Amino acid sequence: MDIEKRIQGLRDRLQYIQDIFGAKENANIQLLQSKLNDFLAREDSVSPAERVKQLSALEDLFEFLEKKLERELTPMDKVRIVRHPQRVCLKDILENVYDNYTELGGQDEYNIDPSMIIARAYISRRVGGKVHNQPVMVIGQEKGHGQEFRNGGSVKPWGNAKALHYMKVAETENIPIHTYVFTPGSYPIEDNPGAAQQIARNLYEMAGLTVPVITCISEGGSGGAEAIGLADHRMMFSHGYYSVISPEGAAAIEGRLRNGQRASVELIESCARKIKMTADDNKAMGFIDQVLHEPSLGARPEDYDFFKTLRQEVIAATDTVVLNVKGLRLFRAMTLSSRRARKKGKSAEDIYVRWNLSSRAKERLVWRRYQRFRRMAQKAYLDDSPFTERVNNVLGEFWWDVYSFFKYDFMRKHQKKITSVMEELGGEIQVVKDRCAAPFQWMRNRISEGEGETAIDTETEKSLTELSCWDEECDTGNGTYYVSPQAREDRAVTCPNSATHGCVDLWAPDLFGDFGGVCSTCGHHFRMEYQWYLHNVFDQNSIYEFNRNIEAGNPLDFDGLDAKIEKAKAKTGKKSGCTTFEARIHGVNCVVAMLIADFRGGSVGAAEGEKFIRAAERARKKHYPFIAYVHGTAGIRIQEGVNGVIQMPRCTMAVRRYIEAGGLYLVLYDTNSYAGPVASFLGCSPYQFAVRSSNIGFAGPGVIKETTGIDIPPNYHDCHQALSRGHIQGIWDRREIRKNLQQALLTMGGRNLYYR
CA-based Rg of the chain, rounded to a whole angstrom? Predict the structure, then answer.
């Protein structure tokens, strides 16, 4: 019976190897197949003793060749490993890493979302004859153990909402959070609360959690991974992947595939290699802290030594995060020294570290988390700013730090005293001023009486007697010099709603000129250039662009991306898909970050993320409102790999820091806005608005169809649907944006003070 089990085990191992390497021709796999078949063919003709001997030799051969095949693994082979049904999963980890646990929020299919598992667990450590039971909150996606109802680990919005709820519970109880990422990506559905909106909410709240967060990544697919992946320490299984998109998705985009076309195996393999998604790639780029080495060809449920290693590393990582923010430096040094001794045979469980944090330690934890993500992807963009400009920027930032301290910190602290003194002093000055000015006032009155009437100043006289200026080139004070190129075309334009609303055809000069791209019958908004907003929303001559020399690059040396970036630069005259500037709206200063659809679809990479973060920091230092205008965004730039997707937590943390300092953050969507930016630093704003006829969502119709097999209604992403779901707070007519922004600034922030 034991021999039959061992033979079946070899059959399973061979099938597993064949699944991993797919249809590839491999001499080692063929050798294993041949040797196993030979053994099975001769099995009945040999003695039991010889049978056992040959079986042991065959097992040794399997082990030897598995190690050899391990060195031949390609990135796509590792993707097949993490997708395999025999892959270790979250419930295996709960059973083998933690000493006890209770599952929360449902069980198996009786669950709000079976793809997301939450468990209250504890780890026992025996130190000095005493047992310490340390509680943790374990959160992660589950792919196995009833995979048919777990949706392959693709979590729906309410599953991520459940995860966030228990993160806040852990924060209340002051216990660490361990998250395990086993997802190909979030389920692209907009039903309330909406995939994008919920991921944005998770990122925003995780950025400020005051308990240690440790993350282990096996399969990290884009926004689904980020929903629980913003952590103080991030580990990755050696056969795992962490990527902005699946290799198949990248191949579909690179191959421009449509209508269900399938990419070739060669193209998928190429994309898997080029987007640098493996653990070693992510460790080299600084997006994870350590790689957890797995057994040959990946960890499976029977690999108990791997679970022992995982337990030790999870404990050690939690200890490290806690000790790095503790105030007792001597104790920390002693403990770290003991951990070094652990390498000589001492276990992490032999050292007791309290995981509870004081209020000061919690503040340091959040600050260190922000600094950690702020340092990521710093080499993934280009910055050719002259040395003098960089020096001026540093000096300018220092000046605003000092100015803000005295105006908003020091002055407020002593505001009542200073106000009282200034009022008294002002009263005295006014008396002296009136006495000194009395003789001059007496002389002016006598002169006026002699002339018989008061002189009218020249400007007032002109305004009362001259006609208004109706010339196109006349300065309206609003900067309306810009004329859309579409308005210069002598053609008639048909509204897409003409069949249902009876809209009449419009002459292009009228439609894109006086009408601002808005149908006069139904109000449909045609697409307008981003320059239209620059000239019609902000005060004339008030725009000052900064950080213009930060430009998009090609950090992964992705084939063909350099040419595409250069083409976009030539087309738009911009160096990246984000432009940042200061401007005024009816005299009110503000900082604006604009995502430009004309530049690679408004996709976000390292350069765009860096400019957005710097804009948020500038708005915080200057105490200005911060406006994100989204002319359009197709999501994260996939050719930059994790350099792109890491902008989701990076920018969200910068926005959170700005909002928590009291800033007013407004987001305005136009045209089409999808994916990563909407699911992070845009979607976390408390004040989100949309231009009429815009579309907002997590994934486009094609992606939803390919992922879920569901045909969505034509208006699924319409801004009115987003409003009904609570994603946005209002819909604006393009011609009223300037007025509405002014109203928002006055009512949400106040005329002169934008900080609470």
Answer: 32
CA distance 568 to 529: 15
Burial (0-12, 13-18, 19+ Cβ within 10 Å), 618: buried
Q: What is the rounded distance in angstroms from the CA atom of residue 134 to the CA atom of residue 145? A: 27
Looking at the structure, tell me whether residues 184 and 332 fall in a common domain.
yes
pTM confidence score: 0.85
Nearest by Cα to 623 from 419, 412, 393:
412
Residue 193 in contact with residue 264, Cβ under 8 Å? no
Q: Per residue, what are the HEC states of 539-594?
A: CCCCCEEECCCEECCCCCCCCCHHHHHHHHHHHHCCCCCEEEEEEEECCEEEEEEE
Q: Are residues 199 and 225 in the same domain?
A: yes
Given 25, 45, 72, the domain boundary residue is 72
Note every long-range contact of 399-407, with CB atoms under 8 Å and residues 24 or more positions apart, other chains counting.
Answer: 400/621, 400/622, 401/621, 404/621, 404/622, 404/623, 407/623
* pLDDT of amino acid 677: 93
| Residue 392 parent element (H or E) | helix 387-404
Looking at the fold, whether 15 and 112 belong to one and the same domain comes out as no
Per-residue pLDDT, 200: 93
In the chain, the number of structural domains is 4
Query: What is the span of the domain harbouring residue 43?
Result: 2-72
Strand 213-221, strand 177-183: pairing: parallel
What does residue 101 show for φ and ψ, rounded to 5 degrees? -160, 160
Task: Summarize pLDDT for 706-733 with one digit per residue, the tens.
Answer: 677 777 888 888 889 889 888 889 999 9
167-173 contact pairs (CB < 8 A, 24+): 167/137, 167/139, 167/202, 167/205, 167/206, 167/209, 168/205, 169/137, 170/136, 170/137, 170/209, 170/211, 171/209, 171/210, 171/211, 173/135, 173/137
Q: Which of 273, 303, 271 has the alpha carbon at shortest distance from 66?
A: 303
Residues 545 and 692 in one domain: yes
pLDDT, tens digit (0-9, with 9 covering 90-100), for 455-510: 455 555 555 445 444 344 444 344 446 788 888 888 999 999 888 888 998 888 88
DSSP letters spanning 97-152? HSSEEEEESEETTEES-TTEEEEEEEEEEEETTEEEEEEEEEEEE--SSSHHHHGG
3-state secondary structure of 296: coil
Sign of CA dihedral 263, 269, 275, 278: positive
Residue where a domain terminates, one of 344, 374, 404: 374
Does residue 671 contact residue 586 with C-beta atoms inside 8 Å?
no
Distance in angstroms between the alpha carbons of the first and the last residue of the chain: 75
Residues 237 and 288 in one domain: yes
CATH of the domain at 673: 3.90.226.10
Residues 254 and 330 both lie in one domain: yes
DSSP 297: T
What does residue 118 show for φ and ψ, rounded to 5 degrees? -125, 135
pLDDT digits (tens, 9 = 90+) for 96-109: 999 999 999 887 77
